[in-house]
Structure formats: C-alpha cells, structure tokens
Amino acid sequence: MIEAGLKYVQCSSPAGLHRMAYKEWGDPANPRVLVCVHGVTRVADDFDSLARALSGHYRVVCPDVVGRGRSDRLRDPALYTVPQYVADMVTLIARVTANGEDEGVDWFGTSMGGLIGMVLASLEGSPVRKLVLNDIGPVLDQEAMQRIGDYIGQDLRFASFGDGAEFVRQVSASFGPHSEDEWHKLASDVLRQDADGSWVRHYDLGLAQPFRAITPQRAEGDQAVLWAAYDAIRCPTLLVRGELSDLLSRATVQEMAARGPRPKVVEIAGVGHAPTFIHDDQIAIAREFLIG
Fold this sequence. Notes:
By secondary structure, the protein is of the alpha/beta class. It contains ten helices and ten strands. The protein has an eight-stranded mixed beta sheet with strand order 1-2-4-3-5-6-9-10, sandwiched between helices. It has a two-stranded antiparallel sheet with strand order 7-8. It is globular and about 50 Å long.
C-alpha cells in the first residue's frame, strides 16, 4: 500500500515562528503538485483516500493547518485567520516547488481549506492552476458559523477513545453515510490521549477566539472581501456542494455559478457539510476535474 511521508516547514506570524506539518504522497520529484487542505477542526489525514488514489499522477501535499494536529499552536490565538493561513500556504508551496518547477499547484479545499484556496487563487501571480471548493463559498451562514464557533471552544474530555469516537460521529453526521471502519478513522485522526489519560480533540481551543470576535458588521465586511476574492479568480474551478449542506446554500451556488470563475458545479446527494471524498464515487468527481 502507498503510504505518505510526514514533513515540516517553518512559517512566520507576527507572534513569531511556527512549524506546520504536512503529509506528502507520491514521487517527491513529481512536478505536478496537488495541495489538499482540510476543514476548521480536521487534519491532513482526511485526505488519505483521495491522496492515495491520485498519487500516481500527483505529488499530493496535505498540511495540518497551524493549530491543528501535528502542527504548532500559535502564540496569539487572534491570528487564527485566513490571511495567516494563506501566508503559511505560500511558504509551503515555495517549499514543495523548490526544485525550480514553475507549473504551480492544483488545490483541493474542504470548507476552511476552500476559503484559503479561494483567497490564494485570487491573488495576482497566484500559483493555483485548478481549484476545487468543497462545500464552501463567499457567503457564510451566520447560524452555522455560530454553531461551529461554539463547538470549537468546548474543552471536552472523554474517558475512553470509544466515548470520543461516538462524539465525533454524532457531530460529523452531516458527512453522510460511512462504514464503521471509516467512522473509526475519522475519529482517530482528530482525537489524542492527553497526559491525564483522557481523550481530547487534536487542536488548539484558541481557534474559537476569532469566531467569538465576529459581529454582524464584521461578518458583512468579511463577506464583501470574500466575494471580491472570488470574483478575481481566473483558474478553472469546481464547486462541490453537499445536498443537505447548512453552510453553502443553493442560492449562493447559483450566484457563484454566474460570476467569478464560473465554476463547474456538482451536488452530492444525501450529504451535508461536507463531503469527505473518501468514497470512490466522490474521488471520481475530483479525478475527472483535476486530471480528466
């Protein structure tokens, strides 16, 4: 079975330096690079199935965004924002394309990872050649954002892995149907055992701080910035929506389809926020768009 290597890259924030972990699949000399970036409380391991399936064509690079998984925690939680994440990804891309390739990278972003990709793809001289936005757009439902913020900040501790896994399964029900083994992996990827023996979620609880700082006025301003970024994207784009998503509405998808990069749109039945791209039918959607 093809397996990934775990590597680190040093990044910078106004609060100092931090290391970002990333998994790398495929031939390290392959100039064709696909960067896959996860949702707000998830990790690089979410893309194991997709990366394994595409690693014959690409070198697939999957980071743990700072504050999650094996990456460092930021000294200032207020910096857990898209601009910092974009800066970190620019550093990562410079590392993984350091052999002199000028082909850029393709990008697959789920939820938060899609927002990061959207902003990166909007920049002048962006390295992003093809962009997949998985269940995310410039309009963020305020109730859904509040739900995510509340969920992130809870200091939950579980007496056993099984208790933690059951919690992850319940809060991730919108991912859609998965096998017992798949649910076990989805949980084990984001749980770790603390020094006191309890099981906790593998991220910095400080991630909740920027969510708590969002006011209606701030949200309106952020949305305007995201639409401007989206309208500046020029690369081929695929927009994926879970049929039952509460974060990306059909109305937003219709507006996105008519402006900016005018993406190809695919809706996945029976799934909410967000499709996991673990299953063959979903992987085939990504493969068709990215590789053809």
